[in-house]
Amino acid sequence: MNFPEWLTQTTTDSQGDVAARVGLPLRTLQYQLRNRPKIETVIAIADAYGHSPFVALVDLGYVDARWLSDLEDNVTAALMAATPDQLTDEILR
């Protein structure tokens, strides 16, 4: 998947709204939409819109998908990847 496709699947916000939300100049976001985005940009956008930055990096080809299954199989890594709310929910369950 390319960056423009991923972005439209992530949010319906305008490019200006996305840039403002993650603290990027609009021109920087537009440049990265035409070229390859920086990993920091992908992570910031995914995080700002409540998506997993790790999955976003896989979707955009920065990280091989095989690492997702390794993450799921590794309890320590899964605990480290969980948000405080997820950990609390699991403890309460």
In brief, what are we looking at here?
With 93 residues, this protein is an all-alpha fold.
Structure report:
- By secondary structure, the protein is an all-alpha fold.
- It is built from eight helices and no strands.
- It has helices at 3-10, 15-22, 26-34, 39-48, 53-59, 66-73, 75-81, 84-92.
- The radius of gyration is 15 Å and the shape is globular.
- It starts with a helix and ends with a helix.
- The relative contact order is 0.11.
- The mean pLDDT is 90.
Keywords:
mainly alpha, single chain, 93 residues
End-to-end separation in angstroms reads: 36 Å
Summarize the biggest pleated sheet.
none
Radius of gyration: 15 Å
Number of helices: 8
Low-confidence stretches: none
Q: What is the ordering of alpha helices and beta strands? A: HHHHHHHH
Structural category is: mainly alpha
Broad shape: globular
